[in-house]
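=== RUN LOG ===
request id: a7f3
mode: sequence -> structure
chains: 1
length: 642
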Amino acid sequence: MMICLMGFLAFYNLSGVELRDFAILRSLENIGLASFSFTAHPYARMAVFGFLFVGALALLYGLQVADPAEQALSLIAIASAVGVGFSANLITLFIFWEILTFSVAILILLKLTPQALRMGYRFMIFHVLGGLLLLLGIIQQSAATGSFAIMPPATGLIYFGLAVAFKAAFLPFHVWVIWGYPTASFPVSVVLAGLTTKVGVYALSRFLPPHEFIILMGASMAVFGMVCALMQKDLRRLLSYHVISQVGYMVAGVGVGTAAGIDGGLLHVVNSALYKAPLFMSAGAVLFAAGTENLHDLQRHKEGEETTPLWKNMPVAALGAVVGALAISGVPPFNGYVSKYLLKTALDGVVVAEWMLMFAGVGTVVSLCNLVYFGFIKARIHPQRKIPVTMKAGIMLASAFCLILGIWPQLMGGILPFGSKLAVYSAQGVSSAMQFLVIGLLVFIVLKNVLEKGIKPPSWLSVEYLFYRPLYRAVLRACQIVCTLDRDLDQLYESSSRLARHTASLTKSFDAAINEAYERSSDLARRLADGTQQFDSSLNEAYEKSGQLARGLADKTAQLDDSLDEMYEQSGQLVRGLADKTAQFDDTLDALYEQSGQRSRSLWDKIRGRPSDWNIRNLNFDSLLIALMLGLFLFILVYFTR
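=== RESULT ===
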């Protein structure tokens, strides 16, 4: 059901823009992806068609032989590639980019052989590094522009460029293709061949501006992949190098940046994925039926045993290999011819790249002749198992569409971004393509014996030996230096930590002593405070009692004062009365004194007159009375003046 749906969506994508936008993008929303941002960019039409259609063929091919987990993860990988194509911003693209990375890595690991585990982990680390570079570019781009729109970056170009280089297998970052494609199970290899590098080419068309370096990089990839493929004896390893070579064609076309270059490059994304499908399917069928994919092993048989060529025992696989070989060689009327014609038109005038791609084209014919001849014509091994129906169906359908899209290239015209005309069949174009085929066949005939024995280059003549081993040693040396520095720092930290612990111990002891002193002083202070509080309470009580006593004394004093005031008032009245009496008495005395004075004067006169009168005999009663009164007066005067 899912395979049919994917095929339907792939061809529905060939319809009008509005229908495609509504159908596919609405379907993404319906399966829970509405929170992401999607759009149908013109470049995405071509890429998404290839992802869906080739993905459906790959799932059909592995329906009876692939593990259910592999089928499920393959579906996730295909969906993530479609998500990258339809992403409307960098965040959505990055999420699906990483989902594709991890789903493909797990697909490789699922084979569970030591080789698969080792290569799967390498693949994952390699692509996680590429994802981190992409994330750095996104961060710089958003910081500079304030937008996550997908466009040629205003800043962080180096990060975007490296991320694309990792995913599109630029030299020398191509090694992951050789790690993953031949190592995974053969149904998974078909899925990988149609997705991973093609996503990188699509990202290249969206991120990076046209440049001569990109053109030369693509041409170099085409030549390098072809040369390495000539030296391989394992079918899928040979085809993996051709993946790198064919991606080089796409990269060169996109690097030109013209309408023909972009259209040709993206059309080659679809055509390459489509004709790689029968090639990888046929190689997988040979591995499934014969138990080996080594070209030397396929020619071995027991002496005296009647044998027949492998193509007679496995005609469907042989047919798929021949169709794929013709299509990848650009032979009309197969689909590879159409996209290579557009690329040749776009690269007209770029002399170096044009000659390099011509050389790669001839080498591709030689390499695929090597595969078909030694893998199916001269091979004599007897198949151990029959190929399931779904595998045959996948090979036949993929081969048929290589022919259909070559005969009627206009079927793809509606989704070309710039609408380049696909009138590619001309006498000159066909004759040029046939020349490559003839030259390649002649070269193969000349080199057949050499290729049969195998070309084994020296071990030092490899990218891993020349680039990755020195890089590994440099990184290892840097890590050793860092580890040594880290160890020294650890020792320094350990010494400083011991000193710190000793200091902390002393500080703790000092702090404990201070705490104890504080505790004692606080106890003393509390006791002093309690005593002070008690003393204060006693004082308050004494003050209260003394206050009450003082108030009582004051009341008594006030009463005494009132009594004294009253007594003073009474004594004052008495004294005033006595004074009045005294004054009256004094007045009386004064009157008496006056009278007595008169009498005294008369008496004095009498006394003074005659001395003889002082004789006691001369005293009378009047004189005695005067003397008595005078004595009484003197007594009163002395008594009151004392």
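=== NOTES ===
The chain has 22 helices and no strands.
Residues 458-525 form one domain.
=== END ===
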